[in-house]
Amino acid sequence: MIRLVVIPVLALASVLATATTAIADDWSHSVEHQPAATASIRVIEPEGYRFTVNGRTDSAPAVFAVPNADNYFVMTVTSPSGASWERKIEVKAHRQAVVRVRHAVPPPREAAQPGTSSFIGIMVNTTHQCREEAHRGAIKLEFVLGPERVKAVEVPMKSRVDVELPANTYRARLYLRSGAEWQFSTVKEVSVTKDGWVFEYGCTP
Questions:
Q1: pTM reported for the whole predicted model
Q2: Mean pLDDT, the chain, whole residue set
Q3: How far apart are alpha carbons 100 and 61 in whole angstroms?
């Protein structure tokens, strides 16, 4: 009697979740020193951002008076969303430091995602145990999903073949070798959900 066995074998499968990777905000600035009666820091942009210089906070555009001497002051910038950034600004006597800040918020980058999980199983041809010679020989299995033939695997007699398939439930078309040709035999449902699934074709003892 011909035997056809499809065995799902329990195994551990890792679950991969979609994740997003945070990317740091892009901040930059430019400073232009222009002649003036006394030293100061003038912030031009971005409008609506809050700037803190020498203990005073104001929204751009704004001018911050500082001592009329060459020096450096820490400038803290806070965006409307709460993101902040700091830079030292050079101040020169009798010059106004005109500051422009640029702030770009890149979109979150989606982490690389794996494709549909694939699982490895085995196909086994034990027809060499069949009493009748007509039942012995190579087999071929076509794994079909909808209109698409996903994979075709041939297994010689007295052999096993490792097969990797994306997780899914397939219609498996079984063909038997007859001389130089393949003859269609039957269709079975094969569920690929874990590593270690087994498809065995042969004869009962």
A1: 0.45
A2: 84
A3: 10
